[in-house]
Amino acid sequence: MIFFVLACVVPAFVVSVLTTGAMRVLSPKIGLIDQPAARKVHKAPTSLGGGIGIWMGVVLPLAMVQLIAWLVHVGTLPSEWIPPELVRHLDGVIYRSGQMWAVLAGGTVLSIMGLIDDLVDLPWKPRLAIQFCVAGALVSAGVQATAFLGIAWLEFLISVLWLIVLINSFNFLDNMDGLSSGIALIASLIFATIMLTSLSEPRWLVAGVLLVLSGSLMGFLCHNWPPAKIFMGDTGSYFIGLLIASMVVLGTFFEYGGAHQHGRHVILAPLCVLAVPLYDFASVLIIRLLEGRSPFKPDKSHFSHRLVQLGLKQKHAVLTVHLATLTTGLGALLLYRVSDWSGAWLVVALILCVLAIVAILETVGRDRREKTSSAMPVMTPATIVTPPAAEQSGQQAGS
User: Fold this and answer.
1) Which of 68, 130, 233, 391 pairs as cysteine with 48 (C-beta 3.0–4.6 A)?
2) What is the pLDDT of residues 76-89, one digit of tens each?
């Protein structure tokens, strides 16, 4: 299993770290630059091409695996040339290739849309319309969750909404260096761990895609960790959100029958892993709507911004959100160690306590910002005092 993990992570990491490094040079030449603004936390113009590095880090290794699997399948490439730990997965790659490339095609469409948005700032309504089209097409192609409802149209709708919410959650989270990519890395690794260790049989293909994404995110973070040299932009955040949402839908969390069957409470695992991103998305959406603003107009209403308002440095705020995400993610792993709903409710209570801490910190940060804003004096010409010439020269000399 260790060889499988390394075979997925290492190539993706190498491709991503090299491509992202190349985009640091190329992005300024093609106008992919994020300029500082009042709603943003960075102070200097920063390249926006990191999403292309993430996309390449995922698509190129998966394309190579697909090519190798096809060459072995048709007999052009002897299977003896492939490590035995990987040969046994090649038939599965061929079998699931249709769904995998449907997801990657949908992610590519969203990445292209994000790239255009990074360049010319598209309105949110056409962006949302394209997201719904991509999500609807993927669910129609079989990327659909089972919610034990027995109502086909309702499960279809739930699956589409799940994809839309996750796409925009990771886009919303892309507001500080290393935040969205770090949370995506934590979520991908935890989901991959569940797929490989917590079920009666490992789900190699879903876990493999998640591990490839993890390696790509690690490569990107080498350039994005505070202080960031490059941002992923909408190009990367849309792709990450769709890929994670799709792999969660395609992954099997609850199994029918068998000696290793877990109770239905394990279907809560995705909600535990993604509790913090989902909470941040919902709270920011509610705040904007209550204030009569566009739900997709960026601002500083996020949990990470509240932590900075409380006095944390940006890097420490990002690490705090990462730790909260890791805590709720470990709760998802714990669901597979409890046998029934009574134990599951304890895990749910743990997650709710973490979210309650987040809510308290958010409220305090919001109140502090409002008090600071109301206490700031209004400068008028009468309040501006010009120091004497001697004092002016003394201040200049001191500086």
Assistant:
1) 233
2) 878 777 787 777 77
Number of DSSP helices (H) and strands (E) in the chain, helices first: 15, 2
Alpha-carbon distance values, 248 to 93, 145, 376, 380 (Å): 18, 9, 47, 57
For 39-103, the three-class secondary structure string (H helix, E strand, C coil) is: CCCCCCCEECCHHHHHHHHHHHHHHHHHHHHHHHHHCCCCHHHCCHHHHCCHHHHHHHHHHHHHH
Whether the CB-CB separation of 244 and 166 falls below 8 Å is answered with: yes
How does pLDDT run across 195-232, given as a tens digit for each residue?
998 887 888 889 999 999 999 999 999 999 888 899 99
> What is the identity of the amino acid at 379?
M
- For the CA atoms of 225, 226, 227, 229, the dihedral, rounded to the nearest 10 degrees, stands at 20
293-311 pLDDT, tens digit per residue, is 878 887 788 888 888 888 8
Listed residue (267, 235, 234, 265) closest to 248, CA to CA: 267
Average pLDDT in the 245-268 region? Answer: 74
pLDDT-based confidence at residue 398 (cuts at 50, 70, 90):
very low
Supply the pTM of this predicted model: 0.86
Q: Are 90 and 76 in contact (CB under 8 A)?
A: no
CA distance 273 to 11: 26
What are phi and psi for residue 46, nearest 5 degrees?
-135, 140
H or E element, residue 222: helix 204-224
Residue 38 maps to a domain: yes
Contact 62, 212 (CB under 8 A): yes
Local structure of residue 251 (DSSP, 8 states): S
**From CA 130, how far away is CA 119, in angstroms rounded?**
17
CA distance 31 to 9: 31
Task: Please give the residue range of the domain that contains residue 286.
Answer: 2-374
Q: What is the pLDDT of residue 84?
A: 78
Say if 189 falls within a structural domain: yes
Number of independent structural domains in the chain = 1
Residue 394 maps to a domain: no
In a domain, 316, yes or no: yes
**C-alpha to C-alpha distance for 231 and 312, rounded to whole angstroms:** 21
